[in-house]
Specification:
Layout lengths: L7 E5 L6 H11 L3 E3 L3 E2 L14 E2 L2 H9 L3 E7 L2 E6 H9 L3 E5 L2 H10 L4 E6 L3 H11 L4 H15 L7 E4 L3 H16 L2 H13 L2
Parallel strand pairs: 1-7, 1-8, 2-7, 3-4, 8-9
Antiparallel strand pairs: 3-6, 5-6
Bound molecules: adenosine-5'-diphosphate (ADP) and guanosine-5'-monophosphate.
Length: 204
C-alpha cells in the first residue's frame, strides 16, 4: 500500500477517446498536478518526446524493472508493455503533490489495490463509430493497430462500473470542465480539508 498526502487521479478510456488531449490540458492548467510518465516498450509516435509522453525503453530494461519491483503496475496491450514507475510516483505523492495517471483499465484496477483512495475517472467516447473515426483522423496508427484497439475498446468499456466518474467526451470543452471539476471537488473534499479546518478552528 502506498501512503500519501497527495491525491491520485486515474484516467482510463478506450484508445482514441481523447484522454491524452484532456489529461495534457489538465496538467498544464491545474497547479500542483503532475502527470505520471509511464515506461513503455513501444516505439515513439511522430511528435512524442522521451521523458515527456513516455520513457521509451527496450525489453531488457522493462524486464529488469519488473524483476526489481520497480513498477507499481504493468500490462501488455497492443503487443507492447506499459508500466507505472514506483520511485517517481511514491516520491511525488509523499511531497503532497497530486498525480494524474493515464493508464488502461487492467492496470488501473491493479493500481487501486496499492492506492485504494485513488479517484477513478473513465472517459467515454460518444459511440463506437466516433471512436474509430478519431483513431483514423489522429493518423498515428496503422489499419491493423486500429482494428486491435477497437477490439480492446469493448473490453475496456465493459469495466466502466469500476470507476467513480464517467465523463462523456463528445463536446471537448464540457468534458474538460467535468474533468477539472472532479480534481477541484476532490481537493475540497472533507477528508482532504479536515486538517485545514481543524487548524482554523484552533485559532478561535
Ligand atoms: P487517447 O489518448 O484516448 O488515445 P487522443 O487524446 O489522442 O486519445 O484523441 C484521439 C483523437 O481524437 C485526437 O486526434 C484528438 O484530437 C481527437 N479528439 C479528442 N477529443 C475530441 C472531441 N471531444 N471531439 C472530437 N475529436 C476529439
Ligand atoms: P498508447 O500506445 O495509445 O500511448 O497507449 C495505449 C494504452 O496504454 C492507453 O490506454 C494508455 O492509457 C495505456 N497506458 C499507458 N501507460 C500505461 C501504464 O503505465 N500502465 C497501464 N496499465 N497502461 C498504460
Amino acid at each position: 500500500m502506498i501512503q500519501h498526502p497527495g491525491n491520485v487521479f486515474v484516467v482510463s478510456a478506450p484508445s482514441g477517446a481523447g484522454k491524452s488531449t484532456l489529461a495534457q490540458r489538465l496538467v498544464r492548467s491545474v497547479p500542483d498536478l503532475s502527470f505520471s510518465t509511464s515506461f513503455t516498450t513501444r516505439q515513439p509516435r511522430p511528435g512524442e518526446v522521451d521523458g515527456r509522453d513516455y520513457f521509451f525503453v527496450d525489453d531488457a530494461r522493462f524486464d529488469a524493472m519488473v524483476a526489481e519491483g520497480g513498477l507499481v503496475e504493468w500490462v501488455q496491450v497492443y503487443g507492447h508493455r506499459y508500466g507505472t514507475g514506483r520511485d517517481w510516483l511514491t516520491g511525488v505523492l509523499a511531497s503532497g503533490r497530486d498525480v494524474l495517471l493515464d493508464i488502461e483499465t487492467t492496470g488501473a484496477l491493479n493500481l487501486r489495490k496499492a492506492i485504494p483512495d485513488a479517484r477513478m475517472i473513465f472517459i467515454l467516447p460518444p459511440s463506437a463509430a466516433a471512436l474509430e473515426q478519431r483513431l483514423r483522423d489522429r493518423g498515428k496508427d496503422s489499419d491493423e493497430q486500429i482494428r486491435v484497439r477497437m477490439q480492446y475498446a469493448r473490453h475496456e468499456l465493459e469495466l466502466y462500473h469500476a470507476y467513480d466518474y464517467l465523463i462523456l467526451n463528445d463536446d471537448l470543452e464540457l468534458a474538460y470542465k467535468q474533468l477539472e471539476g472532479v480534481v477541484q471537488a476532490t481537493r475540497a473534499s472533507r477528508a482532504r480539508m479536515e486538517p485545514v479546518a481543524r487548524k482554523i478552528l484552533e485559532g478561535f
